[in-house]
Amino acid sequence: MSPTAKGLLLLCRPGFEKECTAEAESLARAGGISGFARTTADSGCVHYVFHELVDWKEALEAAPFDAFVFARQRSIWIERVADMPQEDRVTPLIEAIAAQEIQVGRLDVETADTNEAKSLSGFLKRFIPHIERTLKARRILRDKEELPTLHLLFKDSSQVDLGLSRLGDASPWPMGIARLRMPRNAPSRSTLKLAEAFDALMTEEERTQSLKPGLYAVDLGAAPGGWSFQFSERGMHVYAVDNGPLADSLVASGMVEHVRADGFSWRAPRKQVEWVVCDMVEQPARVAQLVSDWIASGKAKRCIFNLKLPMKKRFEELKKCRQVISSRFGLHGDHYVLRIRQLYHDREEVTAYLAKIPAPDSNKTAKLSRR
Ligand SMILES: C[S@@+](CC[C@H](N)C(=O)[O-])C[C@H]1O[C@@H](n2cnc3c(N)ncnc32)[C@H](O)[C@@H]1O
C-alpha cells in the first residue's frame, strides 16, 4: 500500500509564508490538485492541505522541491499524530508510522525556524534516539538510499506531522538550514551566501567545471569582498567592481583586482569570463536585465546573483524578473537554466543561478544532484 498525501509540509523563512503559499498553490493547481493553506504570519511553516487525498507520489511529482523558491524544505504530508501523552509519546508515534506500512531510509527531525520551536531542541535530543532505535528494531528504518526520507515535523512535544520525500528531491540540510562555518579571513558574512548558493543551486558537475584555479570571475558590487573571497580562495582571478573599499587582504592576495566603476556599465577586458556574480543593492528587474545580458551575449558563462525583494508583491516581482530573463534569451532563441531559491543566508532577498545551455532539448528544469 502506498501512503496517501494529505498535503504539503513547507518550511520557510519566517515572514515569507504568503510567498510559500502562493508557490504551493500554483504548483498544486498546475498538477490538477486543489487545496488551501493553513499558516500564520511569521510561523515559518505552511501546511498546504489537499481537498482530497492523493497518492503521495503524485503529490511529489506535482510539487518538486526544485520548483520552490521560498520553501526551504518540503515534504509530502501523510499523517498527523496529536495529543501524544506525556508518559509515553513513543508508542503512539511508532504505531502511526507503522500504520503507514512504509520503510524509510532516513529520518529528518524538523521544527519551524522560530524561537518557540527552537526551545524543543532539548526534548528532541532525548526523544529521537528512542524513535530511531525502535524504528530500526521494527525494520521500518533501513539503511537504504533508495528508500524515502521520513520527516518528523514537530509543532510541540505533543504533536508531530509525518512527511515523506525522496533523496535528491528535498533540501540536503535538515529543515533546509545550511549551517556553514564562517571562513577565517573572509571580509564579510555575505561570503556564506555565495558558499551556500554554490551548494544549493549547482550540480556537482557544474561546481567541478567552474570552480577551479586559473578561471576568471567578475564580482559586481563586490565590497567589502565576501563573494570575491570565495573565488580567490579557490585560486581564481577576480575583477571586483565597486566604488566602495575592498578588504586589504583580498587585494594583497594578488588574485583580486579592485575596479572602481559602475557595475551596470563596466565591461571585462576579456572576451569571456567563467563567472559574473552580482550582489548590488538595486531594483530586481534591473539586475535581472544586466545579468541576462552578460550570459545571453556570452560575456560570462554562468552567473549567481541576488535579488533584493521589495516588502510587498515579492512573488510578482520575481515573476517580472523571470520574464525579463526569458525575453532577453528569447531574442536569439537561446536556452538557459535558471534556478532561484531563498537561501538560509538570504534575508529579504533570493539568490539565483543562471547559465546558457547549448542543446535545444536540454532539460531546463534539470534536477540538482544532491549530496
Ligand atoms: C551588499 S553589498 C555587497 C557585499 C559583497 N557581496 C560581499 O560579499 O562583501 C552591495 C555593494 O554593491 C555596491 N554597489 C551598489 N550599486 C553599485 C553599482 N551601480 N556599481 C558598483 N557597485 C555598486 C555597493 O557599493 C555595495 O558595496
Automatic annotation (TrEMBL):
Residues 6-73 form the RlmM ferredoxin-like domain. It comes from the Bacteria. The keyword Cytoplasm applies. One of its GO terms (biological process) is methylation. Residues 188-282 form the Ribosomal RNA methyltransferase FtsJ domain. NCBIfam families: PRK11760.1. This is 23S rRNA (Cytidine(2498)-2'-O)-methyltransferase RlmM. It comes from Candidatus Dactylopiibacterium carminicum.
